[in-house]
Design brief:
Length: 253
């Protein structure tokens, strides 16, 4: 009964709106193909941008991270919750025991105690560097000493249709993208050719993907990520695009 009421409210909003913006291509299709169809001509893909402080930086001195240890460092930044599907990392780390790889985990959340317990149970603590949550403005500093950014989530239609904000942030900082994901995240990684995306929750595939990606030139892949970001997720470009939509609408009215 509650969902039905919300659906009717949403249908009314869509019907009376002149223009509708969505944060992913998948959401365009979801809106257009609702039970009460929405005119495709007024639904537009307008993704979330990354703030301007997300940018490539020279490697900084970060306590707890040895930037000269020769390890390929993969960062995960943000909420450590069950929805993020991070249980795949300790499993993958176990398969990468003899590979010089470390996972830099920045953040906290309800799943963190269980996550740390799984790391201990699999005896892969040496593969992880845990850093407490930091202000968003400090994330680029930490990413500066990492080769790649990691994204993962559980298999649900909502996550598959969503572009995680950390994807734009990693790309803005010119980082290789490594993901255990699908949907929009996989589409963007494939289009940008800036990393590897394996099936959700598949630790063996993730470990294999990491082994494969560390053989590539991180700078070149990171440059592809940054180029894609500038073309699709740059704040000024998106604001200019929004202004064009508003001006066009004002002219029509």
């Amino acid at each position: 009964a509650i969902i039905g009421l919300i659906d009717r409210m949403v249908d009314k909003i869509y019907r009376e709106s002149g223009t509708i913006f969505t944060t992913s291509v998948s959401f365009v299709e979801a809106i257009v193909n609702r039970k009460v169809p929405v005119d495709r001509r007024k639904v537009h893909y307008w993704p979330q941008y990354a703030e301007e402080f997300y940018r490539p930086m020279e490697p900084q001195n970060i306590p707890g991270i040895d930037k000269k240890d020769g390890c390929y460092k993969i960062a995960f930044t943000g909420n450590i919750g069950t929805a993020q599907g991070l249980d795949v990392l300790p499993k993958a780390a176990e398969l990468l025991r003899d590979i010089p790889v470390k996972f830099v985990i920045v953040g906290d959340g309800r799943y963190q105690p269980r996550f740390e317990k799984e790391i201990e149970e699999r005896n892969v603590a040496d593969k992880f560097i845990m850093i407490p949550r930091v202000p968003a403005e400090r994330v680029p500093e930490i990413l500066s000493v990492c080769n790649a950014g990691f994204i993962s989530f559980n298999k649900t239609p909502l996550w598959e249709n969503t572009i995680p904000a950390k994807l734009q942030s990693y790309m803005a900082c010119g980082k290789v993208i490594i993901a255990s994901a699908s949907g929009e995240t996989k589409r963007i990684i494939d289009e940008a050719r800036c990393g590897v995306c394996t099936q959700i929750g598949d630790a063996e595939a993730l470990a294999h993907g990491i082994k494969k990606i560390i053989k590539f030139n991180s700078y070149e892949l990171g440059l592809k990520a940054r180029t894609y970001f500038e073309t699709h997720f740059d704040k000024k470009r998106l604001m200019d695009e929004m202004e064009e939509y508003i001006n066009q609408r004002a002219t029509v009215e």
